[in-house]
Amino acid sequence: MKRESSPNYLNGVPELLVLRLLKEREMYGYELVQAIRDATGEAIVLGEGVIYPMLHLLEREGALQSRRQTVAGRSRIYYTLTPAGEKRLTQAATAWTRIHDAVTSVLGVSARG
After folding, report:
1. Is domain 11-97 classified as CATH 3.90.1150.10?
2. Boundaries of each Transcription regulator PadR N-terminal domain copy (predicted)?
3. Closest CA to 89 of 13, 37, 7, 38
4. pTM to 2 decimals?
5. Dihedral sign, Cα of residue 33, residue 38, residue 40, residue 45
6. Model pLDDT, residue 71
């Protein structure tokens, strides 16, 4: 059975994860792909085709800022959270918590499963 890399129910989750990870430290795109995979125990695997467009959109919307740096002969764009991005993270985390709690309530299970 082929595993879907970004199921529909994950709508909004990639952005939430990216913002949360960038709150901790600046990262470049592929580093974020790996960090999400590692942080979720490979439960969420997002490809570069999801991450890079999202980073560009978040930067255009003012949630992120970027800087270019050459590392080992390769040019990388590092992203950091802006104050607007921190606000967006707080809003996204609050919304996700509400959704999680509502689904957990409907399923009739404790928050820990």
Report:
1. no
2. 18-90
3. 13
4. 0.82
5. positive
6. 85
